[in-house]
Amino acid sequence: MAIYAQKRAYGSPLLLGTSMVDLLAAPNENDEATLAFVRTWFGNVVSAATIPSPGGILIHCSDAHLIPTNPTSRQYLDNRGNTVINAPSPPPGISLTANACGGFAKGFTYQAAANQIIILCSDSGKGALISSFTPSLDNYRTSGDLRIGPGVSENGLDILGMWLSTVILHELMHAASFAQQLGTFQLGQFPATLPDMVNGATVGEIYQFTPISGKQLGASTSTGQSTANNLQHNADSFALLAASWYLPPYAWVNGQCRKISAINQAPLVYTNTLPPPGQS
């Protein structure tokens, strides 16, 4: 998906819909400066995924290797690398379990030595491996009608976040950010706290269409979109953008799924596309 999105960000054929406007606060859907930034970061994701062992990205399908050291403050020990990590903090009102996923998280990413570790939670119904759609999103690239798929009319663009591949790409954005930090010793591109304060307060990651875009589903006017700088540092913006582009028959207009005529559709595969990277 990241490889395809990098190619799609060259803007040929022209991008339709409002995905980039809604998710990245771009001035328009074919703004070259924003597209260049998007190309760079999807390229960084692919590069991070090709780092060979003993570095690179490791994906765990549970948090069983994380030993609680201070679960009240959400600190855990990675028993393979002797690394203490801070697990995600829960939203207000959540009853925590003692493990790192806490009974509420979909997944999270952390850095351990030269590795970027992705945890796909499976400890509760909210975990990515339990709650996500596991059939491939590829099924809608060539057949079927996504517009009448389950939950699409009610949830719009957010339905794409239900696919496991989108969740993994969200975490890969964080992993690529950690890889950049290792290589350049600068702040990561996709932090847990976004760079610009809003109304005098710090802002954490933003998830889903309406909080990101400031629009209600189907509305053309935004009433509370964050800054473009914040959204360019927001992992869910990039994951949802890639998923929205990955389906050539469809455009997303104000979060709603629309059909694109065959003559205006992007190709299923761009020429000179490299195969996905293998195991790191």
Question: How would you portray this structure in words?
Answer:
The chain is an alpha+beta fold. It has a domain at 2-54 and 135-264. Helix content is 30%, strand content 17%. The strands form four sheets. Strands 1-6-5 form a three-stranded mixed beta sheet, covered by helices on one side. A three-stranded antiparallel beta sheet has the order 2-3-4, with no helix packed on it. The protein has a two-stranded antiparallel ribbon with strand order 7-8. Helix 1 packs antiparallel against helix 3 (32-49) and helix 1 (2-8) crosses helix 10. The longest helix has 21 residues, at 164-184. It is globular, with a radius of gyration of 19 Å. The protein starts with a helix and ends in a 21-residue tail after the last strand.
